[in-house]
From TrEMBL:
It comes from Corallococcus praedator. This is Uncharacterized protein. It comes from the Bacteria.
Length: 331
């Protein structure tokens, strides 16, 4: 008779239904999901709907890769837990001492993410992805290791020193997942820059504006943050810079909740172009207000703030202020 695990678990491969011991091969978990260089809208709905598929992608070298974890609830009732994610260069024998100190973080610098399944059989997905910018390495492979800790099974990382103990650990611990992942240079940015963003105690509509100065037409830019909360997410997907006279910008406007904190990564792809003298990328956070604000007559028009024609039309009756900015200057 097959014995099933009784808690949140990660599959070792597509054929794993939670049986003990876990079926080989162990390094193919479809529940560790590198999803590309942009966060996913409504990850709970998306990654639970394709649970019968492996939708993981290769890791983009030096890009902000967003990685989601999903677990299935094999407990008899509701269950919750905290998940963690680790990495290591691929090795034939992945003893825990090779990866236990290599924990990845989310955009808001969390080492653990809460997940919850309200019913038996539910799929619980991280709403806050881990983010990682892997460097190129010899062999072009890493291994990602996931861990879920619940009230029923804390699943501490064991001290394993022999291959017999390693075998037992892999086969008898469905609270851990393993995935070998390959690297790709396709879509690797020429560079990216990460900057902290803290909303403060007041919720509000914030325009995130990326200004390109002396950036050649044909290059591309993007920015993103994985931390959930803003509506929509703080994401500008890869956008080609048009031919311009030395100044061009693009933006997204988001409703940001109070006390929100994250890291925003903005990226640049040269795409074979040559940066011009005076090259700058500047990420700004702006707030616009209408005439009911006491500050309206003290602030600047969208055009004065360098808004794109579309944003200037949309904000034509409003005035704005730059709350903060971060610049990368070409040398």
């Amino acid at each position: 008779m097959t014995t099933l695990y009784d808690d949140l678990f990660f599959r070792t491969n597509m054929w794993d239904v939670g049986q003990l011991p876990s079926p080989p091969d162990a390094y193919e978990s479809p529940d560790i999901i590198p999803s590309g260089i942009y966060p996913t809208n409504n990850p709970q709905a998306y990654f639970s709907s394709n649970y019968n598929q492996d939708v993981g992608q290769s890791l983009v070298i030096d890009g902000p890769n967003y990685i989601y974890l999903r677990t299935k609830n094999l407990a008899s009732g509701a269950q919750s837990g905290k998940v963690s994610l680790y990495y290591t260069p691929t090795s034939l024998l992945l003893y825990p001492n090779k990866w236990q100190n290599n924990a990845l973080k989310t955009s808001d610098q969390q080492l653990q993410v809460f997940v919850q399944a309200t019913q038996p059989g539910d799929i619980a997905v991280t709403d806050n992805p881990f983010v990682w910018e892997p460097s190129a390495i010899s062999g072009d492979h890493y291994c990602l290791i996931s861990r879920v800790s619940t009230p029923k099974h804390d699943n501490p990382i064991p001290q394993v020193g022999s291959y017999t103990d390693l075998t037992a650990f892999i086969l008898n611990n469905p609270g851990f997942g393993w995935r070998n992942v390959s690297l790709t240079s396709a879509n690797s940015p020429t560079f990216d820059t990460t900057v902290d963003y803290t909303q403060g105690t007041e919720a509000g509509s914030i325009t995130f504006q990326l200004e390109c100065t002396n950036v050649p037409g044909g290059a591309s830019v993007a920015f993103s943050a994985g931390t959930p909360g803003p509506d929509p997410l703080i994401v500008l997907e890869k956008t080609t810079v048009p031919q311009n006279n030395g100044s061009w910008n693009t933006s997204v406007t988001c409703d940001v909740p109070a006390n929100y904190q994250t890291n925003i990564t903005y990226s640049y792809w040269a795409n074979g172009t040559t940066p011009q003298p005076g090259f700058k990328l500047r990420l700004k956070a702006l707030s616009y207000v209408d005439q009911s604000s006491q500050f309206f007559h003290l602030l600047r028009t969208p055009q004065q703030l360098g808004a794109s024609p579309e944003l200037a039309r949309r904000m034509s009756a409003q005035r704005g202020i730059v709350l903060g900015s971060h610049v990368t200057i070409g040398r």
